[in-house]
From TrEMBL:
<keyword id="KW-0547">Nucleotide-binding</keyword>
<keyword id="KW-0067">ATP-binding</keyword>
<protein>
    <submittedName>
        <fullName>Uncharacterized protein LOC111125318</fullName>
    </submittedName>
</protein>
<dbReference type="GO" id="GO:0140662">
    <property type="term" value="F:ATP-dependent protein folding chaperone"/>
</dbReference>
<comment type="similarity">
    <text>Belongs to the heat shock protein 70 family.</text>
</comment>
<feature type="compositionally biased region" description="Basic and acidic residues">
    <location>
        <begin position="24"/>
        <end position="54"/>
    </location>
</feature>
<feature type="region of interest" description="Disordered">
    <location>
        <begin position="1"/>
        <end position="72"/>
    </location>
</feature>
<dbReference type="InterPro" id="IPR013126">
    <property type="entry name" value="Hsp_70_fam"/>
</dbReference>
<dbReference type="GO" id="GO:0005524">
    <property type="term" value="F:ATP binding"/>
</dbReference>
<dbReference type="Pfam" id="PF00012">
    <property type="entry name" value="HSP70"/>
</dbReference>
<dbReference type="InterPro" id="IPR043129">
    <property type="entry name" value="ATPase_NBD"/>
</dbReference>
Length: 1234
């Protein structure tokens, strides 16, 4: 670690971790909006608890886009404390102020923030004439409707530079944020209209803008720093209006997720709160000094003030008090409305429509969208610069000539006649392409907005408890309009109206502060009454229609849909503090229960279907494993800007975890890929009830589709996958084929690639290149969207991505870098890290075959039958994939778990090795240039040739001598041969060693069976050798079963060879070997704990500075000495885990101690791997740097000891570090991508 010394105390226990009595909800316990088709159990309750009702079941769930957080642990003061590692803090906080008219982003590093919280970098934008702090919320999208071209001023310039026909093909979205405001039907299918009324899904447009900011920030960080920051180093904050409902906030999270932001690295900040946090620290308050002079001072403890966020779309107003500890207390629920700056624009456009006519404006918008955009921009500029206090009597706007032409064509009147017979004749004049408007008329455009802002502020100030508020803090872009500021100062002359020097940046900079210190917001005032729909007792006065025929034991009628209140509108709630729990019944044997959450503006709603009541979300309780009826306690709290829910069993105090409703697995194969899924309910009943998608090859249905993806010429959007991709590609003209990208069998690019990174490129079949991570992400995205279609068409209910937990399979012999690369691709596809696991392919197969009948047992009568693998069984799992061969040894434990007996082995000897041998033969026969010409000039024919080879390989069986195998030869290949060689194809075999085994006739080539069999030889021999090497090990002597799975296991030749070679072992092939990994991955998604331990494939350690010893190379000796006069040396391999060591999953190894230097801000731990048991130095042969882990030591005033330990979590390494003095804990996956 840098140049610091280190010591290691043998036998030292893992350091104790800082303990807490309060826990945040776990990522895996986040309950998303869910729609559940059916639950077991009934509604009936005991009389003594009948007022508590019960969670509903057996009825249709309502649609919701709201996020509700759930904690799986019940935390109260005085309860037993559990260990909780503090999350590794990110290096940078970045904020996006997503405005209606203008947007921007800001950032601050944690080191800078601790030194000076005001040192926040704000991106500036070039408007062409000036530099601004915000850019227009304008995004230009490609004709495909998915990829952004540019944003802000640049988007508008690019659009204006286009020809009209090009403009109509592209999408230009402006000022679209308010689509989310008070939209009761808001969902992921909601659409937005662009400038010319073309529609796209709103979530895609929002995601495109967020993605733009994300990628711009990455460029900013990496161009200004010597350190390569990546997306995982950044914590994001996106601002939202406080008056937005929960559905709109959740929609924004969905867009962020689509843009590639993980849920765990994102917070939503309420705009006025963010501004308040910024202005609390920045000098904004006017204080009188002893000498009578006035100066600016910060808001002090006890200050009560209104934050008036005057945005482009909404006006957001909250009341805050500064607490003694510097926190902020909300005094009144957020208020506001759609009265922001764009209301003025709307009024001006309404005037234009009255003057020119709506059809004329529509013609301008449709036929000349560039001119329409310029008119909008001119209106915006004049609005923002308008002042009532100047002597300026007229405001001039530029009128597009195309608007005047459209008017004359529509009305057959001259523009000069337009003002006749109107009320504007005294206030408006038009001359050529200019319109002048009187100050009097122009001021009226502000009236609606200003009047409503004043009205809302006055109503708040008249509220009891707010009479002592004497400061109005006006922020937001609209606060730069002198008209509205003057109106505020005039109307509220008895109050101090304070406008910061940068009102448009207050929200943005405050959002950065919120990212570092969300706890500043101490309490909030509820905007709604929140409750749960329950079954209760029908009472006199309730509608007769609510009365159910079922009765309690005391003869009282039940009724459904009672609003069981948890939080009341106007109630002050402390952030992070939960309300008193309420009790609900779970019926004996019930596996799941669904709680519906409702919101109302009323204080005491009786039923959830009353006017003003809205279902805002659902929460699924997993009750699996319950043997008897348990009452469930549920309570609601406010965490961050969203609701949090906790549920626990009353008697056992066991947290009730939220379980995603579906586990889906992707088997990403070299030749073939597929996906499978299983619902939680089905898995509990029958864990073998796993649905695997089937694929239409055109002639038959298959369990896998070719790992082939067709990508648009833009290089980003997939068009199709599998057989469909190949068919579409073959249907294209050659010129079109060359424009598009077709990638096939590309998975093995990740195998043993020491240079693998996010910049690694893949070549398609015509050698065009794209980033590998984009290609992998495209395939994963295809599976995600296909699954969504499958779920929604196969069910009465709308499932979302959040209902699904994903598992992607990877070879066990892949290195850590390749696994992390796959995670990056999944993240790019829109999968959050918290909803994804990687499963090792042979382990997944083992988990599946452990429960499926695969083992041969002899009965008393001598007959044999298939049985499951029993406890104590030791066996090899031989995963014969398309690319790799993966072999592991497992033992079934008494509790059903699996213990790995030997580290994973294998290599690149899968089915594609056979294809490579056949193609090598074709190149020797026809010549490599001819094959390349076929590939480049006729890629469709090349694909068909490859497919024919694959089919013949898979169906090949060893049979009697003299058999022949026939392959199709494209006519274009023969033509290319003639042109390249000036030879007739009939003479191709002359003077070759193939003459006896190969013949060509027209478009067919026939090969003898003996010759064709040689193509399998390198693959088969290597597979047999690896298996033999493992079985020859002393500790593997008890293994008597070989479990063969994978797509290549369907080749009769290799399975025949295995049975022949290992005749003394039981060679078992499941009935569906190609699906064993896929279905096992689904099981892994539900029960990852089945894998109890693994055997390390490498020795892992950290590079440190150590003591030079006799026998070490002289070149390693450093001139610096220790206090005892011993020499230091760098690059010592400090071992943490040894190759061949058995490690339990989730268990960390003994800690090692490292010393940091005084004042050291950051330390970088470099991780190395070696095949040797005891490497001395990290630069020895076979030592490879595999990753790093950054420790933030900011605030480190003195020399500090840091304890570090390594553990195996899931399929990846985890690192845990703790400062010994402060007990500050870091815990994270190591970064393995350069």
């Amino acid at each position: 670690m840098g140049n610091s010394s280190s010591t290691h105390s043998k036998g030292k226990e893992e350091p104790s971790i800082k303990k807490t009595t309060k826990s945040k909800p776990k990522e895996q316990d986040i309950a998303k909006p869910t729609k559940v088709k059916d639950f077991e159990g009934t509604h009936k309750n005991d009389d003594e608890n009948m007022e508590r009702g019960g969670p509903r079941n057996s009825r249709k769930a309502r649609s919701s886009e709201t996020e509700i957080l759930a904690s799986s642990e019940w935390k109260t003061e005085g309860q037993k404390v559990v260990e909780l590692a503090i999350k590794h803090e990110r290096l940078v906080v970045a904020a996006i102020d997503f405005g209606t008219y203008g947007s921007g982003f800001a950032l601050c590093t944690r080191a800078d923030y601790k030194k000076d919280c005001g040192k926040i970098y704000v991106q500036t934008w070039n408007s062409g004439t000036s530099i601004t702090n915000k850019a227009p919320t304008t995004v230009l999208l490609k004709p495909n409707g998915k990829d952004y071209i540019s944003f802000g001023y640049e988007a508008e310039r690019d659009y204006l530079d286009m020809e009209p026909d090009e403009q109509k093909k592209h999408y230009l979205f402006r000022q679209f944020k308010m689509k989310l405001f008070k939209n009761p039907d808001l969902s992921e299918t909601t659409t937005l209209m662009d400038m010319t009324d073309k529609e796209l899904p709103a979530v895609d447009v929002f995601a495109a803008v967020i993605r733009y900011f994300r990628e711009s920030l990455q460029k900013r960080l990496n161009t200004r720093s010597m350190i390569d920051f990546n997306y995982d180093d950044v914590y994001w904050v996106i601002t939202v209006p406080a008056i937005w409902d929960l559905r709109a906030k959740q929609f924004m999270r969905k867009a962020a997720e689509k843009a590639g932001l993980q849920d765990s690295q994102l917070s939503l900040a309420l705009e006025p709160e963010a501004a308040s946090m910024y202005c609390r620290r920045v000098p904004v308050e006017i204080a009188t000094q002893k000498d009578g002079a006035k100066q600016i001072a910060s808001l002090q403890a006890g200050s009560k003030y209104l934050v008036i966020d005057l945005g482009g779309g909404t006006i957001d107003i909250t009341a805050h008090e500064v607490l003694q500890d510097g926190g902020l207390k909300e005094l009144h629920q957020a208020s506001g409305g759609y009265y922001g700056g764009t209301c003025v624009n709307d009024e001006i456009m309404s005037f234009f429509k009255r003057l020119f006519g709506a059809p004329v404006l529509m013609t301008l918008k449709d036929d000349h969208p560039g001119d329409y955009l310029e008119l909008m921009n001119d209106i915006e500029m004049k609005k923002c610069t308008y002042k009532t206090s100047t002597d300026q009597e007229k405001i001039t706007l530029r009128i597009p000539v195309t608007l005047m032409n459209a008017y004359e064509m529509e009305t057959e009147c001259k523009v000069e006649e337009i003002l006749e017979n109107t009320n504007f004749v005294e206030d408006v004049a038009i001359k050529r392409d200019k319109m002048t408007i009187s100050k009097k008329l122009f001021t009226t455009f502000f009236q609606t907005s200003v009047d409503n802002v004043i009205k809302i502020i006055r109503e708040i100030l008249d509220t009891p408890g707010l009479t002592d508020v004497n400061t109005l803090l006006a922020v937001g872009g609209y606060a730069e309009s002198t008209l509205i500021v003057d109106k505020l100062k005039t109307t509220f002359s008895q109050k101090k109206v304070v406008i910061p020097t940068d009102p448009s940046l207050s929200v943005l900079k405050g959002a950065v502060i919120y990212g570092f210190e969300p706890e500043i917001i101490a309490s909030r005032v509820c905007r709604y009454t929140y409750g749960i729909a329950k079954q209760g007792i029908w009472k006199e006065g309730d509608p007769e229609s609510k009365k159910l025929p079922e009765r309690t034991r005391k003869g009282l009628h039940w009724c459904d849909g009672v609003f069981d209140k948890h939080v009341e509108v106007g109630q002050v709630v402390r952030v992070g503090e939960f309300q008193d729990p309420k009790e609900y019944f779970a019926v004996e044997g019930q596996k799941m229960a669904l709680l519906d959450f409702y919101a109302s503006r009323e204080k005491n709603p009786r039923f959830v279907d009353e006017p003003g009541c809205t279902c805002v979300g659902s929460f699924v309780l997993d009750l699996s494993g319950k043997q008897s009826r348990e009452n469930i306690l549920v309570r609601i709290g406010v965490g961050g800007t969203e609701l949090e829910i906790e549920a626990m069993e009353k008697n056992t105090q066991r947290g009730v975890k939220h379980k995603r409703m579906v586990v889906a697995a992707i088997d990403f194969g070299t030749h073939g890929s597929g996906f499978a899924l299983c619902s939680k309910a089905d898995y509990i009943k029958d864990r073998n009830k796993i649905f695997a998608q089937t694929w239409n090859s055109g002639t038959r249905m298959t369990d896998k589709a070719p790992t082939t993806v067709l990508i648009d010429p833009n290089g980003k959007d997939y068009i199709s996958f599998g057989y469909e991709a190949e068919r579409e590609y073959l249907d294209m003209e050659p010129e079109e084929q060359r424009k598009h990208y077709l990638f096939r069998q590309f998975k093995m690019k990740l195998f043993n690639n020491a240079e693998l990174s996010e910049k690694t490129l893949l070549k398609d079949i015509t050698d065009k290149e794209l980033p590998a991570v984009d290609v992998f992400a495209a395939v994963i995205r295809y599976f995600m969207e296909s699954l969504q279609i499958r779920l929604t068409t196969g069910s009465l209910y709308d499932f979302t991505y959040d209902d699904v937990y994903w598992v992607i399979t990877v070879p066990a012999i892949w290195d850590l870098r390749a696994k992390q690369f796959m995670r990056k691709a999944a993240e790019k596809a829109g999968l959050e890290d918290s909803q994804l696991s990687l499963a090792l392919e042979p382990e997944a197969a083992s988990m599946y075959c452990r429960t499926v009948p695969v083992e041969i047992c002899t009965q008393k009568d001598g007959a044999k039958q298939i049985a499951s693998l029993q406890a104590g069984s030791k066996y090899l799992v031989i995963d014969l994939g398309g690319g790799t061969i993966d072999i592991t040894a497992h033992e079934v434990l008494d509790d059903g778990g699996l213990k790995e007996l030997h580290q994973a082995n294998g290599g690149y000897y899968g089915g594609t090795c056979v294809n490579d041998e056949i193609m090598s033969f074709f190149k020797r026969l026809f010549g490599a240039p001819v094959i390349m010409k076929l590939k480049n000039d006729h890629p469709g024919d090349y694909v068909e040739l490859i497919n024919d080879i694959e089919m013949k390989k898979c169906s090949y069986k060893t049979c009697a001598e003299g058999g022949k195998i026939t392959l199709w030869i494209p006519a274009t290949l023969l033509e290319a041969f003639e042109k390249e060689t000036d030879c007739n194809p009939d003479s191709i075999l002359e003077n070759t060693t193939f003459e006896k085994d190969v013949s060509i006739k027209r478009d067919k080539i026939t090969l003898s069976q003996t010759f064709f069999k040689t193509f399998f030889q390198p693959s088969v021999e290597n597979v047999v050798k690896i298996i033999q090497d493992i079985l020859d090990l002393k500790e593997m002597s008890e293994i008597d079963t070989l479990l063969v799975v994978g797509g290549y296991a369907e080749s009769p030749l290799i399975t025949h060879m295995l049975k022949t070679t290992f005749s003394k072992k039981r060679v078992v092939i499941p009935t569906d070997p190609s699906l064993s990994v896929l279905k096992g991955a689904v099981i892994y998604g539900f029960q990852p704990e089945i894998i109890a331990s693994r055997v390390c494939r490498y020795t892992y350690g950290i590079a440190k500075r150590g003591i030079w010893k006799e026998g070490d190379p002289i070149s390693k000796k450093l001139p610096e000495k220790t206090r005892k006069g011993l020499h230091w040396c760098d690059g010592v391999f400090d071992k943490h885990v040894e190759v061949g060591q058995v490690v339990k999953i989730g268990e960390f190894q003994a800690c090692k101690e490292y010393t940091t230097e005084k004042g050291q801000e950051m330390a970088l731990l470099d991780f190395y791997a070696s095949k040797e048991k005891n490497p001395r130095f990290v630069d020895e042969p076979n030592c490879v740097r595999v990753g790093y882990f950054v420790l933030d030591l900011s605030g480190n005033k003195s020399e500090e000891k840091v304890l570090v330990s390594i553990g195996v979590g899931g399929t990846e390494l985890e690192v845990k570090a703790m400062e010994t003095k402060t007990e500050r804990v870091f815990k994270s996956l190591c970064n393995f991508l350069p």
